[in-house]
User: Fold Glutamate dehydrogenase from Caldinitratiruptor microaerophilus.
Amino acid sequence: MSTVREFRSDPGAVAPAKAAVREAQSPLEAVQRLIRAACEDLGLPPAVYEYLKEPARVLVVNIPVRMDSGEVRTFTGYRSQHTDVVGPTKGGVRFHPAVTLDEVKALSMWMTMKCAVLGLPYGGAKGGVVCEPRTLSRSELEGLARGYIRAVAGFVGPERDIPAPDVNTNAEIMGWMLDEYSSLRGVVTPALITGKPEVLGGSAGRTGATGRGVVITIREAADRLGLDLRGATAAIQGFGNVGSHTARYLQELGVRVVAISDVRGGVHRRDGIDVEAAIEHTRRYGSVVGLPGTDPIGSDEVLYLPVDILVPAALENQITMANVDQVSARIVCEAANGPTTPEASEALVQRGTFVIPDILANAGGVTVSYFEWVQNLQNFYWPEDEVEARLEDMMVRAFNTVYKVHAQRGVSMRRAAYMVALKRLADAMAARGWL
Ligand SMILES: NC(=O)C1=CN([C@@H]2O[C@H](COP(=O)(O)OP(=O)(O)OC[C@H]3O[C@@H](n4cnc5c(N)ncnc54)[C@H](O)[C@@H]3O)[C@@H](O)[C@H]2O)C=CC1
Ligand SMILES: O=C(O)CCC(=O)C(=O)O
Assistant:
């Protein structure tokens, strides 16, 4: 790397996390603080933060959709591409009423950090559409998915930016987007998008990959802490793709999943919930609420149960300085992106909670997306056991790398993960002559 200079504050920039007394007011501010703090920890040249403090490009689009009523309604969509310093950008597309440009920017920045922790050859990206998918019919949803990819088609592509599923999007929606893009380009382009159905070139194991990765990190953490997972208890907030697979794989390791919640409410059972029954109930009724043999519990209450493992697997900002004192789990594993503010996370760590940060915990999804993209480019497909073995290997290596920095430097796992990521990104910048 070029000469390492002292990292100086500039008056316009966000305050370093060390000196922060005020809780970050938004996910964007939170991720900026985290990046800046890691740059300081590593003594990186100021240019590193300058390159990373905002996304390189953002696109705002209006998406007209013909509704079932015959009227045309316009939806707002975003795509944020944070940095392509190590390769094309990569990240999911979220359909949610609360999506904002700043949220999408923050999510793209977390993607950069996540890919760098795992050593994947991508920068981060994220997309979002402001909509309430629960109020859309299937054909309206399909129109929106096709409209979104049409609107960003000149901006994405296998060598530029590769979308994937996120909140309220899934393999079927990725299939529609792939079809639309392929029609526009006049050539079938499986490497455009990951998390698609296997019959269209999706990777074996992608659907469960994020949950599988989450559970690998919990297993590694439990090992370091001397916690026997057989008989340990867990509570899970959010029971979509990530939450449900996490619950399934935890149960396979002998963990008792005593509480689960989704946006409509939660369920509790001291002796452990039958996870497969909860998945089936959710498939049928759209929520875990009302699962026979369980007691009702509020969505938020799940966060406060005296369990060994708490897995927030829904949205950002669920654990903040306002409620952190009520969290009593021994391990908090951030399956969602940004579920804990940096300040609340620091408070948990001070109390002895082992926090596995999002950019490590939920990296299994993008890792298998990377495998999917590689398979698409080679047009050669791997069996599921090979995907799982490679995922296991990469997640364990990433966990060990972060844990080593955590132990050697006496910093939190989050700070350590950012340091690992920033070191790789800064090395790439230096090698490209940017520093
Ligand atoms: N799908 C993926 O591969 C990856 C997803 N993530 C992150 O994981 C999180 C969850 O994503 P998915 O499972 O894909 O989304 P999803 O749409 O499949 O599921 C989201 C779940 O969260 C629940 N939820 C929403 N608001 C809630 C609230 N206030 N309280 C309790 N539950 C609530 C929903 O009801 C649903 O059960 C997000 O933060 C996402 O960015 C991270 C890495 C990869
Ligand atoms: O699979 C991917 O490419 C990205 C998944 C994602 O959006 C995330 O990790 O937050």
